[in-house]
Amino acid sequence: MRESLIYIPTDSSHGVVDSHLSQEISTTASEHLDESNNESIARDSEGEEKKMRKKALPMDGAPAPNEKLEQAQKMAEKFIKEKEVYKANRELIRCVALTRIIYGDGHWQLAQAFANLAHSYLILQGLPAQAIEHAESAKRTMLTGIHTPLATPEDKREILGTLVTIYFTLGVAHLAQNNGKESYLSLQKAERLMEELQELDGRAIMGLKISEKDLVIALGRTCLQQNKLDFATSYFEKAVDAVISMEGDTAPELINLYQKIAQSEQLKKNHERAIAYLLQAHSICMALHKKLSVEAAQTGLLLGKAYAATGDQQHIGAAEMYFTESLIAYQAALGAKDSLTLTAIEEFSKWLVYVGKKQQAYRLLKDSLKSIIDTYGDFSEKAAETYHIMGSICLAEGKMREAYQLFNKCLQIQIAVYGPRNGKLKETQELLTALERSPAVHEGNRLVK
Question: Is 47 left (phi over 0), alpha (psi -120 to 50) or beta?
Answer without folding.
Answer: left
